[in-house]
């Protein structure tokens, strides 16, 4: 007879492992299934985020920015360094060690919470049974009261640029270059393309980003996106909009990329090419035909507002369902589902999920953009404060960017907070906290912020919404 669990989670990424830990904390007998093998040939938990996504990319972004600062900015502080060089293999091995520490930490948490780990591929059968195919090919069937599908996503591939993980790589391959490419091409000016492009541009690569859409960061607030395009272009990213890649040809150790734009057909030769055109949900061999779970046209598992599928007791979370493909969204869904299984009435606020691009300056936002609100016919007041007027930013020699707060013109309730600048992710989180509690711009303006701090820019932007900013001239009301 098959072993029975209260909860079985398929996938140990930021959605799955968090769901499993929370379920176990709530007293549910829990198992988790993971097939991913890390660099050392052992099962590695944490999913894309910890292994080949959020964490390793931030490690390289931080290393490359330190190199950039030493190279370009130390002199202004009176620091003389002589010639600064980068040892790329050392940088990559540091990244690998961080990944190893964190994935090992997740394994420790799984064990400490009494979750049973099955190494292999999980497949949902009918009747909430789960087939586990072990790494050695052996199979066993587990039974569950509840199943959580958390199989994640994988990079989208495009026919004109087939990935070989040598010259043409995806986001995973771009984390393992052993030398700085002379000329680097990036297909896709989204979060992943801009972050990875920034890493190698800072280290000396000549980077060209090819984006098929003719608008830069269309999901970002337009004022912030416009500033971002200006700043990133100044940093050396050659961003070509409306450039649709039509083909690639490898010649020796280089790749010739063909693309079309408004002026016709063109070609550029690169030493490396990163394909970063988005991610797609992983559902291959995840569901038996009679499992009852419905997969939509775009490959996402269909769920309701609480991540429940059409099959009672079967849930799906994270990148495999609708909504933003963000680790923190997946984790929160995991908590909500675990708590609902345990009988609690948990829910999450999908309107307040912060989004961040970890370039330098960071680009972050929460809530609605000004263009969204205008399209909805909502009258708004907007307050903007530039970091150029921030004493703390001046002290840090990092005055690029701005804080923007958008409030309802009638109620003064904050509807969106958008930042480009130093520590944008942290500042936007302050906005998210305020918005979760229904704050008005006046509420934020009446709070005491420490001085000198970057968060004073949030305070001043909130004051500026109603024309009360102190440290910049207020725009006159028409």
TrEMBL record:
Highest taxon listed in the record's lineage: Bacteria
Intrachain S-S bonds: 49-54
Catalytic activity: N(6)-[(R)-dihydrolipoyl]-L-lysyl-[protein] + NAD(+) = N(6)-[(R)-lipoyl]-L-lysyl-[protein] + NADH + H(+)
FAD/NAD(P)-binding domain span: 5-334
Annotated positions binding NAD(+): 188-195, 211, 278
GO cellular component, one term: cytoplasm
Keyword Disulfide bond carried by entry: yes
Leader peptide range in chain numbering: none
Domain spans labelled Pyridine nucleotide-disulphide oxidoreductase dimerisation: 353-462
Pfam family, one: Pyr_redox_2
Location of the protein in the cell: Cytoplasm
Coiled coil start-end: none
Catalytic residues in the record: 451 (proton acceptor)
Coarse class of the protein's main subcellular location: cytoplasm
Keywords: Cytoplasm, Disulfide bond, FAD, Flavoprotein, NAD, Nucleotide-binding, Oxidoreductase, Redox-active center
Sites where the protein binds FAD: 58, 122, 319, 325-328
Note: The active site is a redox-active disulfide bond.
Subunit description: Homodimer.
Protein name as it appears in the record: Dihydrolipoyl dehydrogenase
